[in-house]
Amino acid sequence: MPTTQIGADIANTVRMLRTRHKGAVVIVEGGTDASVYGQALDSRECKLVPALNKSNVLEAMRILQAGGVGGCVAIVDLDFDRVTGKMPAGESIFSTDTHDLEGLLVSSPALEKVLAEYGSRRKLAGKNISRLRKNSSNRSFRQSRLADPAYNAPRT
User: Fold this and answer.
1) Which residues contact 123 (CB under 8 A, 6 or more apart)?
2) Cα atoms found within 13 Å of the Cα of residue 33, Cβ hemisphere only
3) What percent helix, strand, coil does the chain show, rounded to 5?
4) Contact 64, 72 (CB under 8 A)
5) Rg (Cα) of the chain, in Å, rounded?
6) Burial 32-56, CB ≥16 within 10 A → b, else e
7) What's the angle, vertex CA 55, arms to CA 50 and CA 61, rounded to 5?
8) CB atoms within 10 A of CB 147
9) Cα–Cα distance between 44 and 24 in angstroms, integer?
10) Binning pLDDT at 50, 70 and 90, where does residue 29 land?
11) Is pLDDT above 60 for 30?
């Protein structure tokens, strides 16, 4: 898809796709998201549409919902939405549990599978990857500015 697409273009793409596809249409932020989610979804039942960024996804969903187009869902990165209190609205819009798709993969058993497949056996010998994964997820948040009460204090 061309990089100049905007939410309305994505919505029109989905409308056209819905005329010939009776299954679900899943709108995601980008091509990497489509590739990863495509591994988990049945391509005969779900068609993935990358929208190039989160604002395009949300705009496309707004247009589709306002037009009564059904069978569409969106998956967007959580980013800092939970911290800022600006969660995307809409019953068909889902956010990742972590900051982004990569964080979701690292915090899931997928990390062990990737390391088992592509990692160095010598470097991984004796490592408890599951424990490392859990510790790194907790540590990265604890060490971030977002976990600092002074940083999150109301500004006056």
Assistant:
1) none
2) 24
3) 55, 10, 35
4) yes
5) 19
6) ebbebbeeeeeeeebbbbbbbbbeb
7) 70
8) 12
9) 9
10) very high
11) yes
For 50, the 3-state DSSP assignment is strand
The yes-or-no verdict on residue 43 having pLDDT over 90 is yes
- The 3 state secondary structure assigned to 52-88 is CCHHHHHHHHHHHHHCCCCCEEEEECCCCHHHHCCCC
- Do you know the residue count of the chain? 156
- The answer to whether 60 touches 73, Cβ cutoff 8 Å, is no
For the record, the structure tokens of 112 come out as 């062990």
Q: How far apart are CA 128 and CA 134, in angstroms?
A: 10
Show me where the domains of the chain are located. Answer: 1-100, 109-156
- Least confident interval from 38-52, 99-113, 123-137: 123-137
Q: For residue 63, what are the contacts with CB-CB under 8 A and spacing of at least 6?
A: 7, 8, 11
Report residue 107 as tokens: 């915090």
Name the strand (E) or helix (H) holding 46: strand 46-50
Structure tokens at 151: 């940083």
Question: Per the structure block, which two tokens stand in for 126?
Answer: 């004796």
Helix (H) or strand (E) holding 115: helix 110-118
Give the chain's end-to-end CA distance (angstroms, integer): 45
